[in-house]
Amino acid sequence: MKPRTNIIGRRALRLRLMIYTIEIAASLFLASGRGTAQGLPETVRGEAQIYDGVTFDVIQDGGRYRNGTRIRLEAVDSCELRQKARLANVDWPCGAVATAWLTSRTLVKQVECRPTRVVGGGYRAQC
Question: What average pLDDT does the chain have?
Answer without folding.
Answer: 79
